[in-house]
Amino acid sequence: MTTPDILIIGSGMGGATLAAALAPSGKTIVILERGDWLRDSVAARDPAAVFGGHFSPGETWYDAAGGTFTPNNYYHPGGNSKFYGAVLMRYRAEDFRPLKHMGGTAPGWPMSYDEFEPDYQAAEEMYQVRGALGEDPTEPHHSRPYPFPPVPHEPDMVDLCNRLKAQGLHPGALPLGVDIDLWLKGGPLTFDGFPNTRGGKSDAETIGLAAALKHPNVTLITKAKVTRLVADAGRITAVEYEHDGQPKQISAGTVCLCAGAVKSACLLLASADAANPTGLANRSDQVGRNFMNHNITAVLGVSPFRRNRSVYEKTIQMNDWYLTGGPNGEPLGNVQMLGRITGEIMAAESGLPLFVSRWLADHSVHLMTMSEDLPNPESRVTLRDGQIVLQWHRSNWEAHDALNAKLKATLKKAGWPLVLTKTFEKRTPSHQCGTARMGLDPATSVVNPDCRSHDIENLYICDASVLPTSAAANPSLTVAALAIRTARQMLRG
Q1: Average model confidence (pLDDT) for the chain?
Q2: What InterPro entries would the database entry show (predicted)?
Q3: In the predicted model, is pLDDT for residue 217 greater than 60?
Q4: What is d(CA 278, CA 259) in angstroms, rounded to the nearest whole number?
Q5: How far apart are CA 393 and CA 79, in angstroms?
Q6: CA distance 132 to 146
Q7: Closest CA to 370 of 292, 438, 312
Q8: How far apart are CA 286 and CA 444, in angstroms?
Q9: Based on the number of CB atoms within 10 Å of its own CB, is 67 exposed (0-12), middle (13-18) or buried (19 or more)?
Q10: What pLDDT, on a 0 to 100 scale, did the predictor assign at position 286?
Q11: Does residue 306 come out as left (phi exceeding 0), alpha (psi in the -120 to 50 range) or beta?
Q12: Dist CA 130 CA 139 (whole Å)
């Protein structure tokens, strides 16, 4: 293979969108993707298979105490977005500025929301987002309306909205990358958590990668596991990878690392050499640090007198407590629907008998609360004898407790007398980010605001690892917008 102009490692939301934005330039682009194509199968619409680990790669990660767990990360063209809930939500404008929380202060970004807004707009248009303006008092400025009207609320969700509005709250449409009619042609199930093998979700493979591969200058190599970056004199000179079990090497004028917050950090750490003993791009000692993973809790409002007849359910968000609600007016976070939990899903997740799970699922509404996890240099990803070690210190938990309490009281008042909660565990990839943080100061950050390494002139990092804050918003749209912004800066030279 001839040396490409640009090599992209990973084809998730960052890598695929970056490739799509760069492809029209005519530059030769090679994408290395660790996994293979996600094929359709009966298991793709089987709740027991999907939530029972059928699609899991079966990796083992370690925690700081030496315990092990199996993370819900996936390796396919499109990455984790093949299974995502398709929420494509902007950070609020306030998230780009320092913001005081109950658990500390979020540091903000090295750019303003207004500077970043055109990239959000471009990402929404690329990923065909369904949404509505004017419903959410925290919604930041949009230069244009959403490309498509929102995914319609099902009748029982309209009832829930009305009950929330009766309490003076502002439920509204959740911004989604879903063609619901196309999705439901594959079967009457929610899109949240199920693999997109029959169409309907705007994921990184069906949108970003598909757009990139229409160009003859773009090549995708699947089953290519990158193992090391080789550097010399401040440049990446080669990338080592295994392809179908065989060692390979490739060079490129520019290398873009887009393997995800955990894997990108691990690859930089694993590429340590004599000149870079703590890992590549790590003069700041920040690679792997500041790991963030939203505080998320599933909240079920249960009523024996009311049935939930919805199919997909995940269309509502509520941000009344996003910027305020704490004892001194501190932010608490976002509330949004989970995808419709069926008895089969609940049984697979909880271990309850199926008849119990079916009754509970059919007599409840299914929401989630999401609160910001603040950056902490001691929350970090490291390698121990080549194995991934995740040391995650949850932060801002007081705010999450307060958010859960507010939602519980609201649901009870709305007519669901029993409220059950379950906090997501560390094995759930609840929006991992922060391990190669963006910033202006090379002493305290890994990349600059263009996502270019401070240390290595031909290395860009463009995935959730560079996010300086987690906010309380699903990160997919922000990662896509960053990729569009990064592509523009790369092409400017």
Answers
A1: 96
A2: FAD/NAD-bd_sf, GMC_OxRdtase_N, GMC_OxRtase_C, P2Ox-like
A3: yes
A4: 19
A5: 25
A6: 6
A7: 292
A8: 7
A9: exposed
A10: 98
A11: beta
A12: 15
| Alpha carbon 326 to its chain's center | 26
Domains belonging to the chain, first-starting first, are: 6-39+47-492 (3.50.50.60)
Q: Which residues contact 356 (CB under 8 A, 6 or more apart)?
A: none
Beta strands 295-302 and 218-221 are unpaired
**Structure-block tokens of residue 443:** 């002493």
Q: What is the dihedral of CA 423, 426, 428, 431, to 10 degrees?
A: 100
Amino acid at 117: E
Q: What is the pLDDT confidence band of residue 66, given thresholds at 50, 70 and 90?
A: confident
**Residues 212, 432, 183, 130: what is their CA dihedral angle, to the nearest 10 degrees?**
-80
Binned at pLDDT 50, 70 and 90, residue 72 comes out as confident
- Report the pLDDT averaged over residues 409-420: 98
Among 268-277, 351-360, 402-411, 421-430, the least confident range? 421-430
Q: Smallest Cα–Cα separation from 346: which of 47, 36, 63, 110?
A: 47
Q: Which amino acid is at 390?
A: L
Is residue 117 within 8 A of residue 141, CB to CB? The reply is yes
Cβ pair 20, 212 in contact under 8 A: yes
- For residues 403 and 369, the answer to whether their CB atoms sit within 8 Å is yes
Asked if 92 and 140 touch (Cβ cutoff 8 Å), the reply is yes
If you average pLDDT over residues 6-27, what whole number do you get? 98
Q: What is the pLDDT of residue 346?
A: 93
C-alpha gyration radius of the chain? 22
User: What CA–CA distance (Å, rounded) separates 468 from 5?
Assistant: 28
| CB hemisphere CA count around 445 (13 angstroms) | 23
Whole-structure pTM over 0.85, yes or no?
yes
Across the range 37-58, mean pLDDT stands at 93
β-bridge partners, 106: 99
Closest-CA residue to 419 (of 365, 358, 369): 365
